[in-house]
Amino acid sequence: MYKRQLSKRIKQLEWLKDGIISNVSHELKTPIAIVKSSIELALKEKDRKEEEKFLRIALKAVDRQLNIVNKLMRIAEIETSKFRISPKKIDLEELISSAIEEIYPLALAKKIHIKKSFKGNLIVRADEEKIYEVLINLLENAIKYNKENGKIYVNAESKEDYVEISIRDIGIGIKTENLRKIFDKFFQEKPSARESKGGIGLGLTIVKEIVEAHGGVIWVESKVGRGSKFTFTIPKLPDVGVVSSYRFFTN
């Protein structure tokens, strides 16, 4: 029994390693090339404004690289059982508002309006940093896969023994056959408008792991051309470490 489990675990880690090599090498190649060329152009540029423009491009590419590295570090924690949460009393209304404020410049660039709605007592015991990571990830996706002049609706509502948070966009949506794969490691929809958006297919995997580590569940509702709605729950008194099943719906 132990040998079979060990063999299965080794195969899982080998699969993860292969996925990281194939996906990350591709995703890091572009921003590295951008950083290199932008810095070279900045060094040659005599006009101060043009020099700053190239340096800003390089900085944006570095941020993209850092985001990839952070996701790899998080998935490594999860796969090696080093993933831990440190719950404390937090106000989800404040946390959600902070996440929206941080992400707002990205929304502004696409002229996307974010509407938020809060209902009831939103105080929970949760890991503030990791729930913030969930919010930022889902908000980034809602912006990335939205349309120009689109809208994002963020709602948080207190239920009997949990809080339910949803983030809905009016963007490209997800194909029905891909809904059950959307949280899988390295999964990216192809061919579709999502293919050109970049990423290594780990963001939603990490989101799912964080939510479930809090004893919550996560699911998605979507229809191609009409947008997606990701909803997750956080128990008010979470049973930390309990892994729950998650549900899928389509419009």
Task: Throw out a few tags for this protein.
about 250 residues; alpha/beta; two-stranded antiparallel sheet; 8 strands; globular
Short description:
It is built from 5 helices and 8 strands. With 251 residues, it is α/β, with parallel strands linked by helices.
Strand order of the largest sheet: 2-4-5-7-6-8
Number of helices: 5
Overall geometric form: globular
Report low-confidence residues grouped into runs of 5 or more: 191-196, 238-251
Number of strands: 8
Give the H and E element order: HHEHEEHEEHEEE
Helix content: 40-55%
- Give the CA-CA distance, first to last residue: 43 Å
Largest sheet: 6 strands, mixed
Structural class: alpha/beta
User: How would you state the average pLDDT, rounded?
Assistant: 79
What share of residues are in beta strands? 15-25%
**Radius of gyration using CA atoms only:** 20 Å
Helices and strands in order:
Blueprint: H1 2-44, H2 48-79, E1 88-91, H3 92-109, E2 113-119, E3 123-126, H4 128-144, E4 151-158, E5 162-169, H5 203-213, E6 218-223, E7 227-235, E8 248-250
Parallel strand pairs: 2-4, 6-8
Antiparallel strand pairs: 1-3, 4-5, 5-7, 6-7
Helix pairs in contact: 1-2, 2-5, 3-4, 4-5
